[in-house]
Amino acid sequence: MAVLIEKKVEQNVADTRHELLEWHSRSGRLAVSSYNANFGSEVNFFTQQGGKSEHAPTRKANARITQLKWHPEDDILAVAWDNGDVVLRYVEDSNEFLLPVDDDPLDAIKCLVWNSTGSLICVADKRSLLK
């Protein structure tokens, strides 16, 4: 099945770059991350029909998104940042949850993966710390 994105992703800012794309295998949502050195990063959501979703984007100033991973069952997106944060975003109601980190904070996230049931998420940073 082909999907056409008919709306422009960019926000009329010339130096905004769209860096990551991630489809949800069940809902058909598309998450698109964008980065602008002046504003930081954000994730926008698009519908299976190709239109921009009505759901608010996930944003963070002074940080860059390094990984996007959809939960295998639910409309929950794990968003990893270069400052070591990992945010779980439930798309429907815009709730966000920052994953807690033990005593040793993470560096830039390089790998993010859910297990097949979505009950666990594994996070690795650039120093190879696993959480």
Automatic annotation (TrEMBL):
Residues 2-130 form the IFT140 first beta-propeller domain. Pfam families: Beta-prop_IFT140_1st (PF23383). SUPFAM superfamilies: Tricorn protease domain 2. It comes from the Eukaryota. Gene3D superfamilies: YVTN repeat-like/Quinoprotein amine dehydrogenase. This is ANAPC4_WD40 domain-containing protein. It comes from Toxocara canis.
